[in-house]
Amino acid sequence: MLRVVGTVRASLIQINVDPQEPVAERRARAAALVQEQAGSDLVVLPELWHVGAFAFESFAAAAEPLDGPTARAMSDAARDAGVWLHAGSIVEKALDGALCNTSLVFSPSGELARTYRKIHRFGFDKGEAVLMTAGTEPVTAPLPDTTLGLATCYDLRFPELFRALVDAGAQTFVIPAGWPAKRRAHWTLLARARAVENQSYVLACGTAGTHAGVEQAGHSVVFDPWGETLAEAGPGEEVLTVDLDPARVAKVREEFPALKDRVLGR
Ligand SMILES: NC(=O)CCC(=O)C(=O)O
């Protein structure tokens, strides 16, 4: 695909999570898929792809430290491909033993540049909301041509997080997810809403397949700062690659300066 100078090429890997596939095999498959995206600037994987976002009963066994096998494999893949890698999230076993839904962002040298602990845990009175410890801080990740705002799946339902990320300089939201097919309409609607109201790119990377009895929506999608759909996947395993124009964020915000009209919460 010809590249326009000054663009950011982003690849979203909508990987299939099949509980019959050993974690080590999926980890190797994910690393190979990342390496196949050499030439992109940014590669994204979904939420908890190593175990499955709804595989609550496997969270404890799948928990890893930030220098565990998944992080090491993703660091190597980022370095080998020469890409910024948002490696989705892992079940992090923190030093105090707590479990967190932690996103990992690696630089093209393989350095772990940012981590983000999901703030809004899904499940109400069960699952992740009970098993995981919540993050507390919004996190951005400055890349050479755009600043990423990090959010994870259920976070998508909380617009205040995205306002905080915009105020922290975010221009491109990256949202790894394990979003159920039965709520796909919300996934697409909310991702587009976050793009329009924050005049930012949205890279929403879903999961394919069915695990723990929950059919995943897939339908990874990229919206531009005006809410236009740049690319959308189907339900299966697929890689979306799109070229973002970082200058478009400033242009939209300048031509339609709604963000400057905010009164509450500033
Ligand atoms: N993994 C998740 O956070 C699921 C979120 C979800 O199903 C919803 O918001 O709907």
UniProtKB/TrEMBL annotation:
CDD domains: nitrilase_5 (cd07583). It comes from the Bacteria. Residues 8-246 form the CN hydrolase domain. One of its GO terms (molecular function) is hydrolase activity. InterPro entries: C-N_Hydrolase, C-N_Hydrolase_sf, UPF0012_CS. Keywords: Hydrolase. Belongs to the carbon-nitrogen hydrolase superfamily. NIT1/NIT2 family. This is Hydrolase.
